[in-house]
Amino acid sequence: MTTVTVPALARSRSELHDLRGTGPVVFVPTMGALHEGHASLLRIARERAGGEGTVVLSIFVNPLQFGPDEDLDRYPRTFDDDLAIAATEGVDVVFAPTVAEMYPDGVPHEGVATEAVTVQPGPLGDLFEGASRPGHFRGVLTVVAKLFGLVRPDVAIFGEKDYQQLALIRRMVSDLCLGIDIVGAATDREPDGLARSSRNRYLDAVQRQQAATLSRALRAAQERAAYGVPAARWAAMGVIKAEPGVELDYLALTTTGLGELPDYPEPGTEGRILVAARVGTTRLIDNLPLQF
Ligand code: PAF
């Protein structure tokens, strides 16, 4: 019989007292509404922490990374279910602060008078997701930096599903010399290929079918990558255009570091394809590796 230990719950900075045991602190930051994708991050964390280490899960819906017309108010909040998943996956500490606890002087939104220091992403923060969601990555990096300061992890685990976020967090850790080992975890998918996401629960049955178009388009590009960037892009666009329920925001073929690719990269070059689209009112993102 497996024993499930209830994790310690910290609601404030002061309750999150010194976690440091003899082993590493391994951290999984989330906005809650946990699903199987998060559970797979928690399993990686438990393995990295071993018996001696501490697995910390944070649950905080960060207002600073939502734009004024985005889904902050309707973002799913499923705290009791989240705690049950945390217990099953062997989490030691759940840190679930309030907004006032994380932003005691108020949320430092762009244009709001505040003396708070925030983390400004470099130019990579203005591309793709950053172009569609101005200020988003400033919000993400600021809260992740604060969480890192509070939890002081040795290792932090992030999903590759938010590929640009992962790249920017790696960059922040390197540029600000934070000394945290950032681990990227492969995207967890439904049987039809749809990337698991907390926002999938907004989709009705028809939209749920349409949403699977995104991963099909990415796979079509993967299959054509050996013929170059235009052929791969054409293949992905063909799949997307065949589904009128999907409203494309962007489709980008890039280097693994999100830089520009030549049309015909050297054979064997690795790249990435990223997509964002709206299905109904729900905005979904996905990405996959490419091999040219
Ligand atoms: O990926 C997420 O859930 C969030 O962007 C993160 C990293 C927890 C910051 O709020």
From the spread of the alpha carbons, the general shape counts as globular
User: In which range does the helix fraction lie?
Assistant: 25-40%
Following the backbone from N to C, one meets helices and strands in this order, namely EEHEHEHHHEHEHHEEE
What structural class do helix, strand and pairing data support?
A: alpha/beta
Highest CATH level, the class of the largest domain: Alpha Beta
Q: Based on DSSP secondary structure assignment, what is the total number of beta strands? A: 9
Poorly predicted ranges = none
Largest sheet: 6 strands, parallel
How much is the average pLDDT? 96
Name the features.
292 residues, Rossmann fold, Pantoate--beta-alanine Ligase, Chain: A,domain 2, alpha/beta, 6-stranded parallel β-sheet, binds pantoate, 8 helices, 2 domains
